[in-house]
Amino acid sequence: MDKKDSDIVLLCRYLIRFLNIYMPPFSIKIIQKLDDYLLEQMEQLNQNSTDFCYSEKTPQEIEEHQDKFCSADEIKHWVLAIQDEKIIGRLAVFKREIALEGKRVTLGGIGKVKVRDDKRRQGVASKLVQEAMPLFLQMSCDLVYLCTNINNPIMVKFYGKYGFKHFVPGCTYLGKSGKQYLELGAMFAPVNQEVFEWLFNHSEPFSIGCGNW
Ligand SMILES: CC(C)(COP(=O)(O)OP(=O)(O)OC[C@H]1O[C@@H](n2cnc3c(N)ncnc32)[C@H](O)[C@@H]1OP(=O)(O)O)[C@@H](O)C(=O)NCCC(=O)NCCS
To answer: Which residues of the chain have pLDDT under 70?
Structure first.
């Protein structure tokens, strides 16, 4: 690295430090049910966040998405990042009982991860996941499941920091319509290490029941 390059690196570091110092703090709220005010806030968040790891969806893909992600009644907690009384980021925590080869497995899940466009790259999603992970132990889950765009190395690295590992065979599940789907972007993190290792010994897709997260 020559002197010019190292000066640029130094300048970038100062800029990042400056931005971190002047970013107004946000707080984390964990709640079980959204009231009308929070529902409206959630709507505003949806309008002000563009998709980062998935491409724009056609109307047909939106319909399919709604068929696939039909498990809102299994949300046990919302983890919200709040700033100036507004939701700037959110994540949903799911829980479901399933059976795999006759073994009862309590499956936790993370879904609906979203951060407002103007609040990205400031550690909001990282804080949401950090706050969510202890909830799965409290809820006596065995595993935590999420799906992401596995072709996006940023997301794989991000969730990898919290113990999530790509389950290559993928997961099958039923949509609201009864149609069966295969999710190849499945990642799991352990709560019960023994169940986690047992799962990763499988080479066939794992059925997670009805609805993706
Ligand atoms: C993906 C998303 C939740 C990230 O939120 P965020 O608050 O910006 O994430 P963070 O600031 O906590 O960053 C988390 C990590 O991802 C990296 N990252 C996030 N966005 C990035 C980008 N656009 N380019 C490069 N790296 C990025 C960060 O550098 C950080 O890595 P590090 O932990 O090694 O430093 C946000 O972009 C979003 O809401 N996207 C739309 C919805 C979506 O794609 N959700 C994910 C569904 S699986």
So the answer is: 1-2, 9, 12-23, 52-55
CA distance linking residue 47 with residue 61, whole number of Å:
18
- Domains of the chain, earliest start first: 26-210 (3.40.630.30)
CA of 177 to the centre of ligand 1 (A): 32
Q: Express each pLDDT in 18-40 by its tens digit.
A: 555 556 799 999 999 999 999 99
63 Cα–ligand 1 center, Å: 26
pTM of the model: 0.88
Residue 213 identity (one-letter amino acid): W
Type of residue found at 133: M
Distances (CA, A) of 13 to 17, 22, 32, 98: 6, 14, 39, 47
Taking the CA of residue 113 as reference, the ligand 1 atom at the shortest distance is: 45
